[in-house]
Every structure is written in structure tokens, then in C-alpha cells.
Design goal:
The protein has 245 residues and is mainly alpha-helical. The chain has a single domain, classed as Up-down Bundle (Glycerol uptake facilitator protein), CATH 1.20.1080.10. It is built from 10 helices and 2 strands. The protein has helices at residues 2-26, 37-59, 65-73, 82-103, 105-110, 115-120, 131-151, 174-187, 197-209, 225-244; strands at 159-161, 164-166. The protein has a two-stranded antiparallel sheet. Strand 1 and strand 2 form a beta hairpin. Helix 1 (2-26) runs antiparallel to helix 2 (37-59), helix 1 runs parallel beside helix 4 and helix 7 (131-151) runs antiparallel to helix 8 (174-187). The chain is globular.
Length: 245
């Protein structure tokens, strides 16, 4: 239960800071409005870092159902723990999105005439509507995410200190932070790079349930893409990892 609790807290922090930068750079009367894509990509990387620093020592800081499934497929995480991790991550994502709304409530009210922008602070929507290509984009980005995370623990990436050895992951969250930033800047322009069902589906549910003035529908016709795309990418990454390493 302690591992599940820390997955919940870590994912909450990830979404609070990640969706928070989306709100800060896009909602009316925000001092950060217009910050741009680089600010968003950097902040999402740091959001992951904060979540990992909190949850890493206890749960391993998956903070992502797709990653949890990918690690299980690769044989580095027990399948018995997958359901509890996924539930904790989804609940954390929902709570984080609700806190973003509470924090920026006045700014949501000031943006009531732009429902698309408000939706974009909660969840992803594609730049060009092409669901199967959008699915492919999410699959490719998540595949790279999970493959690199798995590769961090391979022998070739180990460094040795006296009789002990450790992977770059032992440096903390820095390698994954850099990876998230790189993915956002390089591959995020098509779909907003969800790469994480807990970052997209629970906030989308929060958007649907919260009393947001002037909101539109929650984009349910697209909602399967940032869920199934990342899971498919994670499974593919696990298969490639087992094949290559």
C-alpha cells in the first residue's frame, strides 16, 4: 500500500506541475501566457523529475500505466503489482488536474470564451486530426520513452564505484528528465505527447466533471489515442528490449 500511495502522490505532482504549465502559458490574464512550447517541454520534464524524486525511493516512480505495463512485459516488474500501480496513477492524475483547476479558477473564468484552450490545459488533442496517425505518433514517442528507460539499466550503461555498480538512473531523475524534454521538443508537435494514460485520461475526466464555465465537450472521440497509443508503444519497447538486449 505504501508503494501505491507514493505512485498516487508522484503522479499527482507530475500532473499538477505539467497541466499547471499548460494553464499558465495559455489561460487569459496569466502572467506566463504566451510562454511557448519550449517552456512547456522544459516544465513537463521538471514535473516528471519532481514526481520521481518523491516516489522513486519507495515505488520506483513509474507514474505512468504504460511504463508499468512495459516493465512487466519486459520481466522487470511483477504483474501482480500492475493493477494497484495503475489505479494509483489514474487517481493521482485526476487529483492533480483538479488542483490545477482550483489554482487557476479565476483564469479559467477569464478564458470562458475559448473552450478549446481550456480543454488543452487538461488533456491532449492533435494538431491535425488523423486518429490512426495520431495513434502512431503516441506509440513511437512512448516506445522510445520506455526503451530508453529500460536501456538505462543495461550493463553497457553501468558505472562502477569500487566494488559496486549502478546505472545512470542512480543519478536520480536527471536522465529521464532530459528524455522527457527531448521527446517533447522533438516529437510532441503532433499530439502534445501524452505518452502516459494517467496524464491524459483522468484529467479529461476531471474536465468533464468540474463546473468549468464555458467548457466544451471533453474530446471523447479522441480519448482512446493517448491511452492505447502509449500502451502499444510500451509493449513494443519491451519486446524490442528483450530482442536486442
Amino acid at each position: 500500500m505504501q508503494q501505491y500511495l507514493f505512485e498516487f502522490i508522484g503522479t499527482l505532482v507530475l500532473v499538477l506541475l505539467g497541466d499547471g504549465v499548460c494553464a499558465a502559458t495559455s489561460l487569459n490574464k496569466s502572467k506566463a501566457k504566451g510562454g511557448g512550447w519550449v517552456v512547456v517541454a522544459l516544465a513537463w520534464g521538471f514535473a516528471v523529475m519532481m514526481g520521481v524524486l518523491i516516489a522513486g525511493p519507495v515505488s520506483g516512480a513509474h507514474l505512468n500505466p504504460a511504463l508499468t505495463v512495459g516493465l512487466a512485459v519486459a520481466g522487470t516488474f511483477p504483474w501482480a503489482s500492475v493493477p494497484g500501480y495503475v489505479v494509483a496513477q489514474l487517481l493521482g492524475g485526476f487529483a492533480g488536474a483538479c488542483l490545477v483547476y482550483v489554482h487557476y479558477k479565476d483564469h479559467y473564468d477569464a478564458t470562458a470564451d475559448d473552450p478549446d484552450t481550456m480543454l488543452g490545459t487538461f488533456c491532449t488533442m492533435p494538431a491535425i486530426w488523423n486518429p490512426w496517425r495520431n495513434f502512431l505518433s503516441e506509440m513511437i514517442a512512448t516506445c522510445l520513452l520506455v526503451f530508453v528507460i529500460l536501456a538505462l539499466a543495461t550493463d553497457g550503461n553501468l558505472f562502477h564505484v569500487g566494488p559496486s555498480s549502478a546505472s545512470p538512473g542512480a543519478l536520480g531523475s536527471l536522465p529521464v528528465t532530459c528524455l522527457i524534454m527531448s521527446l517533447g521538443m522533438s516529437l510532441g508537435g503532433t499530439t502534445g505527447y501524452a505518452m502516459n494514460p494517467a496524464r491524459d485520461l483522468p484529467p479529461r475526466c476531471a474536465h468533464a466533471l468540474l463546473p468549468i464555465k464555458g467548457k466544451r465537450d471533453s474530446g471523447w472521440s479522441y480519448s482512446w489515442v493517448p491511452v492505447l497509443g502509449p500502451v502499444a508503444g510500451a509493449v513494443l519497447a519491451a519486446g524490442l528490449y528483450l530482442l536486442v538486449f
